[in-house]
Amino acid sequence: MIAKARYAGIVITVEKWLEHNKNLKKSHSYFMISKRFFDDHKILLLPCSYRLVYLFILSRCSDEVRDTVTLMPHQFSVPCGVKAALVPRCLHRLQQLQLLRYEFLKPLLEENRIEEKRKEEKRKEEKGATGVATHPPPPTELHGLIKIWNDHCGKLPKVKNSNSHRDKKIAVVWKQQTADAWIETVKKMAASKFCNGANDRRWKADFDFLLKPETWLKVNEGKYDFHNGPVSTAHTRKYDNLDMLEQEFSGGGSEQKN
Fold first, then answer.
1. Greatest C-alpha distance within the chain
2. Which stretch of DSSP H or E encloses residue 179?
3. What residues of the chain score a pLDDT lower than 50?
């Protein structure tokens, strides 16, 4: 029972099987043995129980009509009188004498564990620093929008690197408009003095600002066009954030002096 738990079976291959199968038809389920078999020095070195094990293996190979057979250790107990726990030691000795070769089959359960471990390692490799699995979008989506930005952003900061967080945003916004529409949007941002730092905070639009869901709509509705003139620092100092500043200019843009 102990041997059963350790492996699923033993694949045993008899060396020089043809010597025991000479001139026999393939349909015959027996093997040849002569007095010379017991005179062989290798056989003489074996205990009687080991010889029985070897003969049992030969008989099982003849049943299979081939030189290889798969057996469990407990199958040797009745015909050979050898305990299952001693079978591996016996096979090892027979292999040392070059009478056979053997290999343990791993249990299916162990193979499943190995496969699960391999999959888990692969999942860990796919995870980013945050521990969340990342699946970057196709190169056309990543490189397409980044290339458009770098080619048409003018003096705005160019993109040098990306990461999984930014890649996911690119994959979302890229599909919302055509490439030509994105080119026009970036050109408008590059031409806007407000986006280039002519504001109270000296803020400049960057690539991440382009990735915000509302940016494309605001830029193409002209909310940054009227900012192309100088912005009064005294007038804008009271605003705490960019959104308040945008609302003021967009709501009362017609009242501003050119």
1. 120
2. helix 179-191
3. 1-5, 129-130, 132-134, 136-137, 228-240, 252-258
Residue ranges of the domains in the chain? 2-108, 139-255
The residue assigned the tokens 């408008």 is 188
What pLDDT does residue 221 have?
A: 86
Q: Quote the CA–CA distance of 50 and 93 in Å, as a whole number.
A: 9
- pTM beyond 0.85, yes or no: no
Say if residues 107 and 114 touch (Cβ distance below 8 Å): no
Q: Which of 165, 228, 167, 217 is nearest to 195 (CA)?
A: 228
Write the CB contacts of 17 (distance below 8 Å, at least 6 apart in sequence). Answer: 61, 66, 67
Q: Which two tokens stand for residue 13?
A: 């291959």
Cα dihedral 246/247/249/254 (nearest 10): 150
Per DSSP, 13 falls in state: E
> Rounded CA gap, 183 and 219, in Å?
12
Name beta bridge partners: 102. Answer: 12
List of residues 6+ apart from 156 with CB closer than 8 A:
189, 190, 195, 196, 204, 205, 206
In this predicted structure, what is the pLDDT of residue 202? 87
- pLDDT computed for residue 156 by the predictor: 92
Residue matched to tokens 């501003």: 256
Hey, is 102 helix, strand or coil?
strand
The tokens for 146 are 């980044």
Residue 195 and residue 37: Cα distance in Å, rounded?
A: 96
Confidence (pLDDT) at 105:
81
pLDDT of residue 184: 92
